[in-house]
């Protein structure tokens, strides 16, 4: 069911992108928008993983005797996945994420704070969660959604600027006030779709982790600890563009309170509750 939702939301995001490109410049605008998106997708597909790891100063763990390396290796073997690269982020805020375009080019990164905070069973649950993201190609899906949402926002800003200064001489005979309204509404709709896709993948990764480990309690405990710690501060160099990648939103301390529509993650309470329901089937 979650896979169907993801396909639906990505399709809807694509339709929004086509619509806003057409509204901005007709058929030519739509073509330009797709060419731009193609270039962004190419870069995101091949280089986004390297960019985000460099941004967080992640250092590869190549020592096979390392605690995190061994846990990852054991779980990757159990999940029938190639061994991903493992990285350590020198940050005291506990968190983790996975990146990479496919199974053969995957990476799992954890912060020093996570290692210091969690016990072995909890770390195992977190690593299993990230490997579940890798297994389901969630990073690629999230990247595509982010690229489309970003492109929609950029073109919408251009629409708004053009509408304000074009007066009534628009070649498409469109109302500049309508264009301004669309320029405001469509990026919000794109962001909501992007965040909904992200939330659905988190539920799937939680379930996949529990089934991989054979127990949900480690991940439940880890999520609770990570959420409580995240409310005390923010990760160094954390950005809104990469927040959806982490197992817990690094901006939880200032997350939007007035609407669940704008959350990058499901609430931790909901995630823990779903894992509790899953226990009887493990």
How would you sum up this structure, described in words?
This protein has 282 residues and is mainly alpha-helical. Helix content is 64%, strand content 6%. The chain contains eight helices and four strands. A four-stranded mixed beta sheet has the order 1-2-4-3, with helices on both faces. α7 (217-230) packs antiparallel against α8 (268-278). It is elongated. The two termini are 19 Å apart. Mean pLDDT is 82; it is low at 168-173.
Topology:
Layout: H1 2-55, E1 59-60, H2 67-78, E2 85-89, E3 96-99, E4 107-111, H3 112-117, H4 120-135, H5 138-166, H6 176-213, H7 217-230, H8 268-278
Parallel strand pairs: 2-4
Antiparallel strand pairs: 1-2, 3-4
Helix pairs in contact: 1-5, 1-6, 2-4, 4-6, 4-7, 5-6, 6-8, 7-8
Strand content: 5-15%
Largest sheet: 4 strands, mixed
Helix-strand pattern: HEHEEEHHHHHH
User: Mean pLDDT, rounded to whole units?
Assistant: 82
State the secondary-structure class.
mainly alpha
Structural shape: elongated
Instruction: Please give the order of strands in the largest beta sheet.
Output: 1-2-4-3
What does the radius of gyration come to?
20 Å
End-to-end Cα distance: 19 Å
Q: Level of helix content?
A: 55-70%
* Low confidence ranges: 168-173
Count of strand segments: 4
Number of distinct helices: 8
């Amino acid at each position: 069911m979650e896979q169907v939702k993801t396909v639906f939301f990505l399709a809807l995001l694509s339709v929004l992108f086509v619509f806003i490109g057409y509204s901005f410049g007709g058929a030519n605008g739509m073509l330009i928008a797709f060419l731009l998106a193609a270039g962004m997708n190419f870069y995101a597909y091949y280089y986004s993983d390297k960019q985000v790891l460099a941004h967080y100063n992640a250092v590869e763990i190549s020592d096979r005797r390392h605690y995190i390396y061994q846990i990852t290796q054991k779980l990757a073997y159990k999940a029938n996945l190639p061994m991903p690269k493992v990285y350590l982020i020198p940050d005291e805020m506990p968190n983790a994420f996975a990146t990479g375009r496919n199974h053969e080019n995957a990476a799992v990164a954890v912060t020093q704070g996570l290692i210091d905070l969690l016990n072995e069973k909890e770390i195992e649950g977190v690593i299993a969660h990230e490997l579940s993201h890798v297994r389901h190609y969630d990073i690629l899906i999230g990247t595509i959604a982010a690229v489309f949402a970003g492109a929609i926002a950029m073109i919408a800003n251009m629409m708004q600027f053009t509408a304000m200064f074009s007066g009534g001489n628009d070649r498409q005979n469109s109302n500049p006030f309508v264009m301004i309204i669309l320029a405001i509404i469509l990026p919000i709709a794109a962001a909501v779709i992007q965040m909904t896709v992200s939330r659905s993948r988190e539920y799937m990764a939680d379930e996949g982790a529990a089934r991989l480990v054979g127990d949900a309690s480690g991940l439940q405990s880890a999520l609770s600890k990570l959420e409580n710690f995240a409310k005390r501060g923010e990760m160094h160099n954390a950005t809104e563009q990469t927040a959806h990648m982490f197992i817990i939103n690094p901006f939880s301390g200032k997350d939007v309170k007035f609407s669940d529509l704008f959350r990058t993650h499901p609430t931790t309470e909901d995630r823990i509750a779903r894992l509790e329901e899953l226990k009887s089937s493990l």
